[in-house]
Amino acid sequence: MEVQIAVSKAKKYASSTSGDTVEVIERPNGGLSIVMADGQSSGRGAKWVSSFVVRKVISLLAEGVRDGAAARAASDALFTEKAGKVSATLNILSVDMSTRTLVITRNNPAPVLLALDEDIKLLDKSSVPVGIYRDTRPLITELPLQTGMTVVVFTDGIVHAGSRDGRVMEADTCLQSILEDGDPTAQEITDSLLEHAIKLDQGRPVDDTSVIALRVTPRISENMVRRMVVSLPIGL
Amino acid sequence: MEVQIAVSKAKKYASSTSGDTVEVIERPNGGLSIVMADGQSSGRGAKWVSSFVVRKVISLLAEGVRDGAAARAASDALFTEKAGKVSATLNILSVDMSTRTLVITRNNPAPVLLALDEDIKLLDKSSVPVGIYRDTRPLITELPLQTGMTVVVFTDGIVHAGSRDGRVMEADTCLQSILEDGDPTAQEITDSLLEHAIKLDQGRPVDDTSVIALRVTPRISENMVRRMVVSLPIGL
């Protein structure tokens, strides 16, 4: 089988820097982790916070620390650094090849969408961001990797899309229609969701918005080639 | 304009772990860096070495350290850790938005291919791997970002492709024909080069092989959306 991971990111309208940070790192015992943080407020301050949290997490994961412990450490480090005055949401999505599981770690009020084929579940138990309280713990969901699995994680740019005009984005309904349209790639999922959010915001995103999709497909890759593609638009 | 970066990686035939490590990281002052290391020998030992070098470099880049200084520090750290007995090749490719330049850092005997439109130059001045000598310095090439630019970087799996049968892979000739075929994406370039190498090795790569391509295209991305896609084949 093959795991596909896609990320699509857009900045808040007229903002120079996204306050969201997303990084992917190889796990020392096999597999990958993708780490996403959204720093409180927007612009450079928010970017500092989200980078701080993501770097803390990836440096710990790279040493073999488990996801839950890495999330707790990042929360404690931000709490200590900013005296509990600054928060960030944090999500970690890991393909752990030592256990052959998918590990979903969540310190984010925004839900995570988890689908098996076209059957979508919301992981929406109450969850707090990191950095505000001592001893903040993430919610963790661990599942055996299986084909047909789709996980979608996003920052609150998706939750607030359309809010300028009192509209609401139903991410689960959107995902349902994308999945029913056939066999979308991970990138088709993130692009469709982000595009829908930007449309609800009439082309001027109300917030930094990042969407991650992970799919487990039955595809057999010739020669087991791993691939990564990044595209970075540059303003003039 | 848009910067496209693609990576394609294959393992040595019948090897469980690739000794090559490639990671992408956001630069704190804007832009991206992609860091590639190939650890001496193969399998788990080589993986340890290449991870060690890449992690050292990305943690320094994340703090705003310049590429050349990060490469020197990684060399010194490996030299200290392994008493000069273990080497790794190292390449860093950075899109630095604070200077609007492309920075190519090389501690690798394998050349780097640099093309402007279809005109290919080889960066092949003698360069040593990191970790064996005190004060190892990288070769650095810094160029203003411009559309039509293509850079291709690879580990020695490409250099040695075909060697089992006394054949030689001419990476620059391959790149020339790919570029002349039209307007390839970065992923088309890395996939073609890797595929060609695996074919020369008759489907059984003689070494871990990683290829990175970076292209600067005139494409204008709608809403300045950033994208990343990763695919990870999983054996049964």
Describe what you observe in this structure:
Two copies of one chain form a homodimer. The first copy, chain A, has helices spanning 43-62, 67-82, 156-159, 171-180, 186-200, and strands spanning 2-10, 20-26, 31-39, 88-96, 101-107, 112-116, 119-123, 139-144, 149-154, 209-217, 226-233. In chain A, the strands form two sheets. In chain A, strands 1-10-9-6-7 form a five-stranded antiparallel beta sheet. The mean pLDDT of chain A is 94. Chain A is built from five helices and eleven strands. Chain A starts with a strand and ends with a strand. Chain A is α+β, with helices and mostly antiparallel strands.
The H-and-E topology of chain A, N to C, reads as: EEEHHEEEEEEHHHEE
Strand content of chain A: 25-35%
Intertermini distance of chain A: 41 Å
What's the gyration radius of chain A in Å? 17 Å
User: What general form of chain A does the structure show?
Assistant: globular
**Most extensive contact:** A-B, 54 and 54 residues
Main pleated sheet of chain A:
5 strands, antiparallel
The multimeric state of the shown protein is homodimer
Q: What is the tally of helical segments of chain A?
A: 5
The helicity of chain A comes to 25-40%
Low-confidence parts of chain A: none
Which structural class fits the helix and strand makeup of chain A? alpha+beta
Biggest sheet: strand arrangement of chain A: 1-10-9-6-7
Number of strands of chain A: 11
Arithmetic mean pLDDT of chain A: 94
